[in-house]
Amino acid sequence: MATVVWDNDEIILVDWLKPGTTINSTAYVATLWNLCHAIQKKWSGKWVKDEIPVLPHPQYSPDLALLDYHPFGALKKPLRRLHFADWN
């Protein structure tokens, strides 16, 4: 599996997950560190400190909750108790 991050100009990072591994907190943090270094490399010498406003948003948003959580239960149900031998 690949994690691809891009901006409006180009691809910044392509980070591949090794076969047989899963995304966990350690892998996610490693990808974020790689992204941080890739952004610093791209913007070295061009970095300008800007104030970025934090927009207020509700803790719970019903429109996101339905889209994020409702369909996944139905999608996962047919896959229960299935085991795959390999990637092919």
Task: Give an overview of the whole structure.
- The chain is α+β, with helices and mostly antiparallel strands and 88 residues long.
- It contains 2 helices and 2 strands, in the order ββαα.
- It has helices at residues 25-42, 62-76; strands at residues 2-6, 11-16.
- It has a two-stranded antiparallel ribbon.
- A hairpin with a 4-residue loop joins β1 and β2.
- The longest helix is centred in the middle third of the chain and has 18 residues, at 25-42.
- The mean pLDDT is 78.
- It holds the Pfam family Transposase_1.
- InterPro entries: RNaseH_sf, Transposase-MT_Hybrid, Transposase_1.
Summarize the structure in short.
With 88 residues, the protein is of the alpha+beta class.
Give short descriptive properties of this protein:
about 10% strand, 2 helices, about 40% helix, alpha+beta
What topology emerges from the helices and strands here?
Layout: E1 2-6, E2 11-16, H1 25-42, H2 62-76
Mean pLDDT, to the nearest integer, reads: 78
Q: What proportion of the residues is helical, as a percent range?
A: 25-40%
| End-to-end C-alpha gap | 13 Å
**In percent terms, what proportion of residues is strand?**
5-15%
| Secondary-structure element order, N to C | EEHH
Calculate Rg over CA atoms.
Answer: 19 Å
How many DSSP E strands? 2
Total number of helices: 2
Largest sheet: 2 strands, antiparallel
Q: Given the C-alpha coordinates, what overall shape results?
A: extended
Helix/strand structural class: alpha+beta
Uncertain ranges = none
**Order of the strands making up the biggest sheet:** 1-2
